[in-house]
Amino acid sequence: MKDFLRVLRRFVPPYKKYLVWNVICNILSAILNLLSFALIIPILNILFRIDETQYTYTDFHFQFFNFETWRGMPEAVKNNFFWFVQDMIETKGGSFALIILGIFLVVATFLKVFTMYMAFFTMIPIRTGVVRDIRNQINKKITELPLGFFSKERKGDIIARVSGDVNEIETSIMSSLDMLFKNPILIIIYLIGMIAISWRLTVFVFILLPVAGYIMGQVGKKLKRKSFEGQQQWGYLMSQIEETLGGLRIIKAFNAEDKIQQRFEKSNNDFRRLTNRVYRRQQMAHPMSEFLGTATIAIVLWYGGSLILSNNSTIDASTFIYYLVIFYSIINPAKDLSKSAYAIQKGLASMDRVDKILQAESNIHDPKDPQPIALHDHIQYNNVWFKYQNDWVLKGINLHIPKGKTVALVGQSGSGKSTLVDLLPRFYDVTDGAITIDDTDIRTATLRDLRELMGNVNQEAILFNDTFFNNIAFGVANATLDEVKAAARIANAHEFIMATPDGYDTNIGDRGGKLSGGQRQRISIARAILKNPAILILDEATSALDTESERLVQEALENLMRNRTTIVIAHRLSTIRNADEICVMHEGEIVERGRHDDLIALNGYYKRLCDMQSF
Ligand SMILES: Nc1ncnc2c1ncn2[C@@H]1O[C@H](COP(=O)(O)OP(=O)(O)O)[C@@H](O)[C@H]1O
Ligand SMILES: [Mg+2]
Fold first, then answer.
1. What is the Cα 569 distance to its own chain's centre?
2. How confident is the model at residue 51 (pLDDT cuts 50, 70, 90)?
3. Nearest ligand to the C-alpha of residue 585?
4. Which ligand does the CA of 615 lie closest to?
5. Going by DSSP bridges, is the β-strand pair 440-441/378-387 parallel, antiparallel, or unpaired?
6. What local confidence, expressed as pLDDT, does residue 578 receive?
7. For ligand 1, what atom is nearest to the CA of residue 412?
8. Is 22 exposed, middle or buried (0-12, 13-18, 19+ CB in 10 A)?
9. What is the mean pLDDT of residues 386-393?
10. What would the CATH number be for the domain defined by 378-612?
11. Which residue, judged by its Cα, is nearest atom 25 of ligand 1?
C-alpha cells in the first residue's frame, strides 16, 4: 500500500481539483442515501400499523456553536418528521401519506444517483489524465535513453508496457482512489448512521467485519507475482508480432510461416496458462465476498433480532430493518476495498515494469558546465577503446581527421567500423581514451550542440510515415519549400518527388515503404544536405542499392561530400578511391592506413579486400 501511495503522489497531484469535487460528491451521495432509506421507517410503520406513539411538534432551535443542539438535532428532526407523517395520515388518510412519502423517496433517490454520477464524472478526467501523462513520459524517455538501452530491451516488450501495463496502472489507480477517497467516506458516514441507531449492534458488527476482511486478504497475496509474470509473457508476445511484421518478406521467402506460427502459438499458450491462474484467483474475490457478506448479515440478523425480541432494546422492528439496509449499503464499499487490494497488486506489478523505462538512468549525460564546440580545424580519436559488453570492439584507435578532408573506413563486417563512427555523436561513450573536436573533448559539450554538427546517412534509410517535405525538413526548424526543393535537387530526388500525385506533400507510407531503396536513400541524403552539417557520417550508404540507383545516389553523395569533413564507411571501391585517407580495420584495430595506391602497393589487408571486392 505504501508503494502505491507513492505512485499516486507521482501522478495524481495535477488533478487535485477533480479529487476535491469527487470527495464532496461522495459525501453528499452517502448522506442522501441514508436519508432516502430513512423514509422506509414511516412507510413500514404505516403499512403494519406498528407505531402507537402520539407525536407532538417540538420547537427546536439549532445553534451551530452549541454542542447540545447538535446532540439534540437527530431526535428533534426524527420526532418532527414522524409528527408530520402522523398528522398527514390523520387529516388526509394513509394512502395519501404513502404517495407523499413515495414522492420524497423518488426525489431523494434522484438527488442521490445524481451526486453518485457526479462523483464518477469528476473521476474521469483524473483517470484519462494520468494515463496520458504516463504514456507521454514513456515516449519522452524512449527518445532520451541512449541507443544502448534498446539493444537490451525488446521493442515489443516496450510496446506491451505502453499498452498493457499502462492500462493496468489505470485500473489500479482508479481502484486505489476509490479505496482512499470514496469507500472510506461511504463507510464512515454509514457507520455514523448505524451508531446513531444502535451502538451495541454496531460494535458487534465491527467485530465481525475484520475477520471477513482478513480471509479475503489472504487470497490476494500471490496475485502480484503471477501478474508480473503474465505481463512479462505479454511483452514477449508483442515482440514476436513486431518481429514477424518486420520480417514478413523473409518469412514468406523461406516458407517459414509454420515455424513462426508454432513459435507464436507456444508463447501464446504459455501466456494463456499464466492468465488462467491470474483470472481464477481474481474471480474468487466475488463469490468469496458475497458468501462472507451474506454470512455476516445472517449473524447480524440473529443478534439484532434477538435484541428486539428480548424487549429490552432501544430500537423497534422497522428501525432494525432500516439498520440492515444501511448495513447492506456498507457491504459494497467494504467489498470494493478488498477488490482494490487485488487491482493495486496488479497495478504495482505493472508499475514496476513501466518504471524499468521511466527510472532507467541514461549513462550518456550532458556535462554540468558545457563548453561550446565547433569544427574549425580537426577531429581527433585519441587511443579510443570501446566494448559493448565483455569483448573489446575497438582497441586503441588513433585517428586524425583534418577539416574538409574525407576519411574512409574499410574492413570486414564486424571489424568495428560502425561502432567507431557511432562514438562521434555519442550514441555510445568511449570506454577509454577520448575523442576531441578542435581539442575540445566531445563529452564536455552538450549532446545537442555536438549532434548539431553532424549529419548521418546510413545503409538503411530511416524515414517516417509523413510527407516528402517533412521527411527532408526533419532536422531543420522552419525550412521553406524552396530550401527543401534545392536540397532535393542536389540529392537527385526532385524529379521523382514531382512525379508523385501531390509532389512534396505526398505521404511516403510506413518507413517509406512505397519507395525504392535508391529513392529512400536519396531522400535521406536530401535531409542531410538541408541540415548542412559540418561533419558528415556515411555508413555504407550505397551498399543496399542496385547499380542504376547507385549511380544517382553516388552523384548525390558526391554533391553532399564536397568541401565537407566526411567519415565514410564504404563497400565499393568507387566511393573511397578519392578519399584523403583510407583506414583498414581488422578486429577493432586500424591495421593499415594511407591512400589507395599506397595501400595496394603494400600488398596487405587492403589488397586482399580489393581483390575480393568485399568491403
Ligand atoms: N549493440 C551492440 N551490442 C553488442 N555488441 C554489438 C552491438 N553492435 C555491434 N556489436 C558487436 O561489435 C562488433 C563490431 O560491430 P560493428 O561496429 O557493427 O562492425 P562493422 O560495422 O564493421 O560491421 C561486432 O562483433 C558486433 O557483434
Ligand atoms: Mg556496420
1. 38
2. low
3. 1
4. 1
5. unpaired
6. 81
7. 22
8. buried
9. 92
10. 3.40.50.300
11. 414
Task: Quote the pLDDT of residue 168.
Answer: 85
What atom in ligand 1 is closest to the CA of residue 417?
22
| Distance (Å, whole) CA 221 – CA 224 | 7
What pLDDT is recorded for position 300? 83
Q: What is the pLDDT of residue 370?
A: 92
Asked if residue 151 has its Cβ within 6 Å of ligand 1, the reply is yes
Instruction: Say yes or no: CB of residue 167 within 6 Å of ligand 1.
Output: no
Which CATH entry fits the domain spanning 2-358: 3.40.50.300, 1.20.1560.10, 3.40.50.720, 3.10.310.40? 1.20.1560.10
* Burial (0-12, 13-18, 19+ Cβ within 10 Å), 242: middle
Lowest average pLDDT, out of 235-239, 430-434, 570-574, goes to 570-574
Mean pLDDT of 249-256: 83
Give me ligand 2 centre to Cα 613, in Å: 16
Edge-first strand order for the sheet with 432-437 is: 392-402, 378-387, 432-437, 440-441
**What's the grid cell of residue 76?**
428533534
Q: Which ligand is nearest to the CA of 393?
A: 1
Q: From ligand 2's centre to the CA of 422, what distance in Å?
A: 10
Does the beta carbon of 417 lie inside 6 Å of ligand 1?
A: yes
Q: Which of 391, 393, 571 best tests ligand 1's pocket when mutated (most atoms within 8 Å of CB)?
A: 393
| pLDDT at 161 exceeding the cut of 90 | no
Question: How much is the average pLDDT of 209-219?
Answer: 67
Q: Of 535, 281, 273, 271, nearest to 403 (Cα)? A: 535
Q: What percent of the chain is helix, strand and coil (3-state, nearest 5)? A: 65, 10, 25
Residues 6+ apart with CB under 8 A from 130: 11, 12, 15, 169, 170, 173
Angle at alpha carbon of residue 181, lines to 180 and 187, rounded to 5°: 90
Q: How many residues does the chain have?
A: 615
Give the start-to-end residue ranges of the domains of the chain.
2-358, 378-612
Q: Is 614 in the pocket of ligand 1 (CB under 6 A)?
A: no
**For 285-327, what is each residue's pLDDT tens digit?**
677 777 877 887 888 888 888 887 877 667 777 788 888 888 8
Give the closest residue (by CA) to ligand 1 atom 9. 419
DSSP states of 367-404 as a string?
-SSPPP---SSEEEEEEEEEESSSSEEEEEEEEEEETT
Residue 400, beta-bridge partner list: 380
**Contact 302 CB / ligand 1 (< 6 Å):** no
Q: What is the pLDDT of residue 213?
A: 67
